[in-house]
Structures are given as C-alpha cells and as structure tokens.
Specification:
Layout: H1 2-14, H2 17-29, H3 35-45, H4 49-63
Helix pairs in contact: 2-4
Keywords: Membrane, Transmembrane, Transmembrane helix
Length: about 70
C-alpha cells in the first residue's frame, strides 16, 4: 500500500500517467497486487473520466506487446 501512496504522490506532482499505468500492470502481472486493489486505486486517483479513458486505452495498447 505504501507503493500506491508513493505512486499517487508522483501522479499529483508530476503527472506520470504512462509510468503509473505500466507499473500497475506490471505489479498485477507479477501478482504483487490483486485486481481489486488496483481497481480501487485506479478509481481513487483517476476519477476524471477522460483521463481514466486515456489511461485505459494506453493500458490495452500496452497489453498487445506483453508475451503470454
């Protein structure tokens, strides 16, 4: 949870959208975080619908390049 708070601080200070969404995906992929924790964090930080849609689209696009 400390990591999520650090990510939120970085988001608020620097707006590092791509870095955050890639790190969240990586942590999910490595089973460090559960989907419910990531979902809750996603909704808390990215409550702006337009921003959330852009990040969601970027996450889906990044999934195309991840080996199974």
């Amino acid at each position: 949870m400390r990591l999520l708070l650090k990510l939120q601080k970085e988001y608020l200070l620097h707006g590092k959208y791509m870095g955050i969404q890639m790190l969240l995906f990586f942590l999910l992929w490595k089973k460090v975080l559960s989907i419910s924790v990531i979902s809750e964090y996603w909704n808390m930080v990215f409550s702006n619908m337009q921003t959330k849609q852009k990040l969601y689209d970027a996450l889906l696009k990044s999934l195309e390049h991840v080996p199974n």
